[in-house]
From TrEMBL:
UniProt-listed InterPro entries: PH-like_dom_sf, PH_domain, PH_domain-containing_F, PH_Phafin, Znf_FYVE, Znf_FYVE-rel, Znf_FYVE_PHD, Znf_RING/FYVE/PHD
Organism of provenance: Nothobranchius furzeri (Turquoise killifish)
Residue span of region Disordered: 219-245
Location in the cell: Early endosome membrane; Endoplasmic reticulum
Protein name: Pleckstrin homology domain-containing family F member 2
SMART domains in the cross-refs: FYVE, PH
Topology with respect to the bilayer: Peripheral membrane protein
UniProt entry keywords in alphabetical sequence: Endoplasmic reticulum, Endosome, Membrane, Metal-binding, Protein transport, Transport, Zinc, Zinc-finger
SUPFAM superfamilies documented for this protein: FYVE/PHD zinc finger, PH domain-like
Biological role: May play a role in early endosome fusion upstream of RAB5, hence regulating receptor trafficking and fluid-phase transport. Enhances cellular sensitivity to TNF-induced apoptosis.
Ranges of Acidic residues composition bias in the record: 235-245
Pfam family, one: FYVE
Length: 245
C-alpha cells in the first residue's frame, strides 16, 4: 500500500499541506518514496508540564511541532528518522494514560494519546514503519538511546545529593546521561556524548564517575570528558530549555 501511494497525487497534496502548515521555517518534507501514514495530536511530556503537540507519521520519519492554529499553523518543527526509533509502552498513572516512549540516540520522551485505541494504532504503525525500514536497509535496531528526562514537577529535591531543595535561586538541571533532575553543584561536570552533541554536555556526579571509570553499557558511545565550562559549551539557558521543550 505504501509503495502504491508513494507517487500518488493525493499523497503529494497531503505532504504539501503539512509543509505549508509549518511555513518557511519548516524543512521541506516531499521526497521520492515518502508517504504520509497518519497524523494527530498527542500530549508530549515536556520538562515543565505536558503539552499538546501535532505529530505526523511518515513511512521514514516522525515529525512534530507546536500547535499555533489547529490544522492550519505549526512551528518549531522536529524531524526524527524512524530508523533510530525504539518505542516502549508506559504504564497508566494518574491522569497520564495511554502513553509510550519514543526513544532515539539524541532525544527520548513520552507521549500520550487520548484513548487506548489511538495509542495502539500509533504504536502499531510506528513499529511497522521501523521494521520495514530496517528490513530494507539491512541495519540492526538502534541499541543506544538518550535518557528520558524526569519532569521538573517530580523532583522537589536534587535527585543526586537528596539535600538541595529547588527554588527560583537554586535552579533545576538535567543530567544528559540518566535524565535525573539535579542541582548545580551536583552537575558541574560535563562529558562528551557524541550521540547527543558535538560539545560536552551536563552530567551528574554519579554518571560522571561511572563514565570516567569506563562503566558503560554495550552500546554506549562516549568520548573525551571535561569538568570545566567554557565558550564551546551550551549556556545555562540553552542547556536547561531543551530546545524550548
Amino acid at each position: 500500500m505504501v509503495d502504491r501511494l508513494a507517487n500518488s497525487e493525493a499523497n503529494s497534496k497531503r505532504i504539501g499541506l503539512v509543509e505549508s502548515c509549518f511555513g518557511a521555517a519548516g524543512q521541506p518534507l516531499a521526497i521520492p518514496g515518502r508517504v504520509l501514514i497518519g497524523e494527530g495530536v498527542l500530549t508530549k511530556l515536556c520538562r515543565k508540564k505536558p503539552k499538546a503537540r501535532q505529530f505526523f507519521l511518515f513511512n521514514d520519519i516522525l515529525v512534530y511541532g507546536n500547535i499555533v492554529i489547529q490544522k492550519k499553523k505549526y512551528n518549531k518543527q522536529h524531524i526524527i528518522p524512524l530508523e533510530s526509533v525504539t518505542i516502549d509502552t508506559v504504564p497508566d498513572e494518574g491522569e497520564l494514560r495511554n502513553g509510550w516512549l519514543i526513544k532515539t540516540p539524541t532525544k527520548s520522551f513520552a507521549v500520550y494519546a487520548a484513548t487506548a485505541t489511538e495509542k495502539s494504532e500509533w504504536m502499531n504503525h510506528i513499529g511497522k514503519c521501523v521494521r520495514e525500514l530496517l528490513q530494507k536497509s539491512g541495519k540492526s535496531p538502534t541499541g543506544e538511546h538518550a535518557a528520558v528526562w524526569v519532569p521538573d514537577s517530580e523532583a522537589p529535591l536534587c535527585m543526586c545529593c537528596h539535600k538541595v531543595k529547588f527554588t527560583p535561586v537554586s535552579r533545576r538541571h538535567h543530567c544528559r546521561k540518566c535524565g535525573f533532575v539535579v542541582c548545580g553543584p551536583c552537575s558541574e561536570k560535563r562529558f562528551l556524548l557524541p550521540s547527543q552533541s558535538s560539545k560536552p554536555v551536563r552530567v551528574c556526579e554519579h554518571c560522571y564517575t561511572v563514565l570516567m571509570s569506563g562503566g558503560l553499557g554495550p552500546h554506549d558511545s562516549i568520548s573525551r570528558p571535561t569538568s570545566n565550562f567554557n565558550n564551546n559549551t551550551l549556556s545555562d539557558d540553552e542547556d536547561d530549555d531543551n530546545s524550548s521543550d
